[in-house]
Specification:
Helix content: over 70%
Order of helices and strands: HHH
Shape: rod-shaped
Organism: Hexamita inflata
Strand content: under 5%
Structural class: mainly alpha
Number of strands: 0
Number of helices: 3
Distance between the termini: 116 Å
Number of domains: 1
Protein name: SNARE
Length: about 130
């Protein structure tokens, strides 16, 4: 069995497996690969060396297309991650503002409590002085 046919069979099995999620893209690649293989077979009959080089170029172009797709996906993921980080930055700033307000309120309440203790002590002194 030729190596190309064996590879095609493996790809077909993967595409039909239940765990593989990107079946449509893989099926498209299989069809493209089949067409290229047929063209290669036809062309090899006329000029084997030239057609073999063309076939290699087509395979390289397919690989480059796949890599370009992967780069585009990575770029989109980085853009999405950047957007999420900006949202997290805004939420963190809001949280910090809330923490600052709470800290100010606690400090103010502490000062008022100390002032209240001082007032109670002063009132007790005044009350003792009147007795």
């Amino acid at each position: 069995m030729p190596k190309i046919t064996k590879s095609l069979n493996q790809i077909s099995k993967l595409a039909n497996s239940k765990n593989y999620t990107n079946r449509s893209k893989l099926n498209f690649r299989i069809l493209t690969f089949n067409k290229v293989s047929q063209k290669l077979d036809e062309s090899l009959k006329s000029d084997p060396d030239q057609e073999a080089k063309k076939f290699q170029i087509q395979l390289i172009e397919e690989e480059l297309d796949d890599q370009l797709d992967d780069i585009i996906k990575i770029s989109q993921n980085v853009t999405d991650l950047n957007s999420m980080m900006k949202i997290m930055e805004v939420e963190t700033q809001k949280g910090q503002e809330t923490i600052n307000i709470i800290e100010e309120n606690v400090t103010h309440a502490d000062n008022k409590a100390k002032e209240g203790v001082d007032n109670l002590l002063a009132a007790r002194r005044i009350q003792r002085g009147k007795k």
